[in-house]
Amino acid sequence: MNVTINGETRSVSAGQSLADLIAAHTTARSGVAVAVNGEVVPKTTWPDHVLEDGATIEILTAVQGG
User: What does the domain layout of the chain look like in residue ranges?
Assistant: First the structure.
């Protein structure tokens, strides 16, 4: 199935959780925020959030510096 991650279409496994997708997309363990179809998804629900075909996912990672 296909999803859009930060503007790029990607193929993912059917039934894949948001937590698995995030783990594959970034090595950051903190400072990560995710929205699916314009709705922020709390980190505590990532393992239970199953991705749907055509979903639009925005992954944001906080960067420190100045």
Answer: 2-61
Q: Are 66 and 12 in contact (CB under 8 A)?
A: no
Contact status, residue 49 vs residue 34, Cβ threshold 8 Å: no
What pLDDT digit, counting tens, does each position of 1-57 carry? 999 999 999 999 999 999 999 999 888 888 999 999 999 999 999 999 999 999 999
Q: Which fold has domain 2-61?
A: Ubiquitin-like (UB roll) (3.10.20)
Rounded CA separation 41/59 (Å)? 10
Question: Whole-prediction pTM value?
Answer: 0.88
